[in-house]
């Protein structure tokens, strides 16, 4: 006998035979989880009471510690029946082992395709199935008596310790954030809005609320656009008035000062007279030469 225990070297060598045996072992273990255990006593599950140390109860009475222990024991007892009364069918593309362990540990019933794996207890066409776990965008055949959900729903229900609405986990839906169960809900750091909604249902945003908010946002945008347009019109009007005032003060119809325009006309007339005088002088000189 060796301590610590040592495995034979042959078990540590991976080959086709060992992988086959391991796969068969895992399949048998999952199948074993799917069968109900028979009780030898007459005590029903619902009548079982949480185990509490009665000596501590007698010593401390109704102290806060004992009350807390009672609450924790009651919570554990409730969690054992979280999936009680629910029947799950796992599609062949979904990993079975973690889901079977969770569903069976929390009181649910589960099965799968008997032609692929051993240990199935009911078929897919069983109309008493409440949830079918699928990891594909769509299915050709669906039953209206069950919810078709993605695997994350099971894990989120266990993490949040309650049955969550299934509409966020339907086929093809974008899954909500996977919230960690290992954090304090009353922490001072950032808390995602999805986690806040779990603790305060009034924070859950419904479809009608989102539509109302979008309508309000559109109305606010229109009002801002109208205000901006009015401001632009006022600026343009002010610029026009200033330009008109400058036009009246300094410019004529062509944007030239009226006095300057009169002077330019007089200069043009004088130039024309000078040209006429020069032409007359040239004509007289030509006549004299002749």
Automatic annotation (TrEMBL):
<feature type="compositionally biased region" description="Low complexity">
    <location>
        <begin position="232"/>
        <end position="243"/>
    </location>
</feature>
<dbReference type="Pfam" id="PF16589">
    <property type="entry name" value="BRCT_2"/>
</dbReference>
<keyword id="KW-0698">rRNA processing</keyword>
<dbReference type="InterPro" id="IPR036420">
    <property type="entry name" value="BRCT_dom_sf"/>
</dbReference>
<feature type="domain" description="BRCT">
    <location>
        <begin position="78"/>
        <end position="171"/>
    </location>
</feature>
<dbReference type="InterPro" id="IPR010613">
    <property type="entry name" value="PES"/>
</dbReference>
<feature type="region of interest" description="Disordered">
    <location>
        <begin position="193"/>
        <end position="290"/>
    </location>
</feature>
<feature type="compositionally biased region" description="Acidic residues">
    <location>
        <begin position="256"/>
        <end position="283"/>
    </location>
</feature>
<keyword id="KW-0539">Nucleus</keyword>
<dbReference type="GO" id="GO:0070545">
    <property type="term" value="C:PeBoW complex"/>
</dbReference>
<dbReference type="InterPro" id="IPR001357">
    <property type="entry name" value="BRCT_dom"/>
</dbReference>
<dbReference type="GO" id="GO:0003723">
    <property type="term" value="F:RNA binding"/>
</dbReference>
<protein>
    <submittedName>
        <fullName>CG4364 protein</fullName>
    </submittedName>
</protein>
<keyword id="KW-0690">Ribosome biogenesis</keyword>
<keyword id="KW-0597">Phosphoprotein</keyword>
<feature type="compositionally biased region" description="Acidic residues">
    <location>
        <begin position="210"/>
        <end position="231"/>
    </location>
</feature>
<dbReference type="GO" id="GO:0000463">
    <property type="term" value="P:maturation of LSU-rRNA from tricistronic rRNA transcript (SSU-rRNA, 5.8S rRNA, LSU-rRNA)"/>
</dbReference>
